[in-house]
Design brief:
This protein is an alpha/beta fold. Helices cover 33% and strands 27% of the residues.
Length: 236
C-alpha cells in the first residue's frame, strides 16, 4: 500500500476550479516531483493535501487513514508536514527558536536540533541569529529544518529552490539522500525540470490543474516533458 494516495482530487476557489481530478501516489522511501509552470495548480494541490486549503472533493489517504477533511495541524501531527513556498519563518525569532517550533508536534523520531545542525552545519553557526536577518538560502534551510523537527513520514516541499542561487539549490538538494535515509518520503514541487528529474524517482507534470504526464524520471524524455509542461505537441 502506498504511504500517500491522492484520488481524483478537485480543488476550488469559490466557483473557480483550480485542480481537476488529480490522482497520484507516494511510496515509502520515494521522492516524487510535481513539475509545471506558474499557475498549473501545483501549490494549490499541496495546500489541499496538507489541509491548508479546505474547498475540495476527492480523497487523500495517508498511511491508511483518510485525512481529506482533517485540519492542517492534525495532519502535521499524523506525520505529514509542509515546507511552504516563501518559507514563512518567524523573522523575530532566532534560528533555534524557529526549529524548536517544529518539535511542538510532539512526534518522536531521529530529527532533533543537533541533527538539523549536522544536516545544515551553517545553521549551527547562526543558531542565535534572527531568522529574518538570514539570506534566502539560509532561511530555506531553517524552513526545511523546522519541518523535519516534526519528525514527519512525508515531507511536502513547495518551490524550495525559488529565488535561490544554483550553488545553494545544489546544497539543499544534496541533503535529500540523508532525509530519505532517516525514513522520510518526499513530495517536491519544482519548476526546474532538470533539478526535479535529478532529485526524484517519479514525476508528475501538471498543466492547467490536470496531470499532463507522469512516469519514472529515468524514462521520461525532455521532449515529452516539454510538451506536457507547455501543452504543445511532442516532437516526432
Amino acid at each position: 500500500m502506498p504511504l500517500l494516495t491522492i484520488e481524483n482530487l478537485e480543488v476550488f476557489y469559490g466557483d473557480f476550479q483550480a485542480v481537476h481530478g488529480v490522482s497520484l501516489t507516494l511510496e515509502e522511501g520515494q521522492t516524487v516531483a510535481i513539475i509545471g509552470a506558474n499557475g498549473a495548480g501545483k501549490s494549490t494541490l499541496l495546500n489541499a493535501v496538507s489541509g491548508l486549503h479546505t474547498q475540495k472533493r476527492g480523497r487523500v489517504m495517508f498511511d491508511g487513514q483518510d485525512v481529506t477533511r482533517l485540519r492542517a495541524d492534525l495532519i502535521a501531527r499524523a506525520g505529514m508536514t509542509m515546507v511552504p513556498e516563501g518559507r514563512r519563518l518567524f523573522g523575530s525569532l532566532s534560528v533555534e527558536e524557529n526549529l524548536e517550533i517544529g518539535a511542538t508536534a510532539g512526534r518522536r523520531g531521529p530529527w532533533s536540533v543537533k541533527a538539523i545542525y549536522d544536516l545544515f552545519p551553517r545553521l549551527g553557526e547562526l543558531s542565535h541569529m534572527l531568522a529574518g536577518s538570514l539570506s534566502g538560502g539560509q532561511q530555506q534551510m531553517v524552513a526545511i529544518g523546522r519541518a523535519l523537527m516534526t519528525n514527519p513520514r512525508v515531507l511536502l516541499c513547495d518551490e524550495i529552490s525559488l529565488g535561490l542561487a544554483p550553488a545553494i539549490i545544489a546544497d539543499i538538494y544534496r541533503c535529500f539522500d540523508a532525509i530519505r535515509g532517516s525514513g522520510v518520503s518526499i513530495v517536491v514541487i519544482e519548476q526546474n525540470v532538470r533539478q526535479a528529474c535529478i532529485a526524484a524517482q517519479y514525476a508528475y507534470c501538471m498543466l492547467e490543474g490536470r496531470i499532463s504526464l507522469e512516469g519514472r524520471t529515468a524514462e521520461l524524455s525532455m521532449d515529452a516533458i516539454t510538451a506536457a509542461y507547455f501543452g504543445t505537441r511532442e516532437k516526432q
